[in-house]
Design goal:
With about 250 residues, the protein is of the alpha+beta class. Helix content is about 20%, strand content about 30%. The chain has one domain: Electron Transport, Fmn-binding Protein, Chain A (Pnp Oxidase, Chain A, Roll). The structure holds flavin mononucleotide.
């Protein structure tokens, strides 16, 4: 409550309400196009909001949507560094591709191999806490998203998560899908060339090694390098509600 009161006068960096009760207003900054002088495009507004208008989006979602839009010409703007803690309490960090959001919870979707170190550690009850670090080169801004990870395997009993895993598989390219049947990641390099040339998997039948990895975001730090001086915003959950603080960079 103390924090919520303290932040009550802080305006959202892109002009939206910090409590973000109105999803349409939250999305407006994300669909403003620099090429039309910042006027929201009605066509894009319709497309973008139709599927998610009913969700009460956390306020940081519009900042990330805006960054994704402004950096859309850069494929590497969809690469995220994901840091985890292994079973020996040591950090592990690696690059993953952002695969979109699991709605309505705004969980970040990744895909990974059940035989990878991160998956093995999660299945062996390593800490689920993780931090994603996402840099957008064109707009020179960084988001650090802290939260907990869930691994969605072929054995998942949650129907919506299983459906999301299936959809993620179907959205992969053929070359992406086949990698889940390559030789075991982390093992000594296979001499057998067949280890990297398995039959092409069925586009509707996910490989048993294929997992969806979900990051349930609990805190976000947004650093904008542009500006005099730089801006930094900290989003956190207080009593289940997102609050935002402007902090020193
Ligand atoms: C640009 C780039 C994108 C990558 N995307 C993914 C990905 O989407 N999923 C994945 O599991 N690994 C991806 N990798 C490989 C991971 O960085 C990492 O090497 C692999 O997941 C094994 O990590 P682990 O042993 O820590 O589990 C990517 C690597 C690079 C360089």
């Amino acid at each position: 409550m103390l924090i919520a009161e303290r932040v009550s006068n802080i305006k959202h960096p892109h002009g939206i309400n910090q409590r973000c009760q109105n999803p349409r207003s939250a999305l407006l900054p994300a669909i403003r196009s620099p090429s039309n002088g910042g006027t929201p495009s009605k066509i894009k507004l319709a497309n973008f909001t139709d599927s998610i208008l009913n969700y009460n989006l956390p306020p940081w979602r519009s900042s990330i949507a805006r960054a994704l839009h402004r950096n859309r010409s850069l494929p590497n703007a969809r690469y995220i560094q994901l840091a985890t803690i292994d079973n020996n309490h040591r950090p592990q960090n690696r690059t993953l591709v952002f695969r979109g959001w699991l709605e309505p919870e705004s969980k970040i979707k990744f895909v990974t191999d059940i035989r990878s170190s991160k998956a093995i550690n999660l299945l062996a009850d390593a800490s689920p806490w993780a931090e994603a670090c996402w840099y957008f080169p064109k707009t020179r801004e960084q988001f650090r998203l802290g939260g907990t990870l869930e691994l969605v395997t072929s054995a998942c009993g949650n129907t919506s998560h299983s459906q999301a895993r299936q959809a993620a598989w179907e959205q992969m390219s053929d070359s992406g899908r086949v990698q889940f049947d390559w030789g075991t990641p982390g093992a000594d390099r296979s001499e057998d060339p067949q280890a990297f040339n398995p039959p092409q998997p069925d586009e509707h039948q996910p490989s048993a090694n294929f997992c969806l990895l979900l990051l349930d975001v609990r805190s976000v730090t947004h650093l904008e390098l542009r500006g005099e001086a730089q801006n930094c915003y900290l989003y956190g959950l207080v009593d289940g509600e997102w609050v935002i603080r402007s902090i020193n960079p």
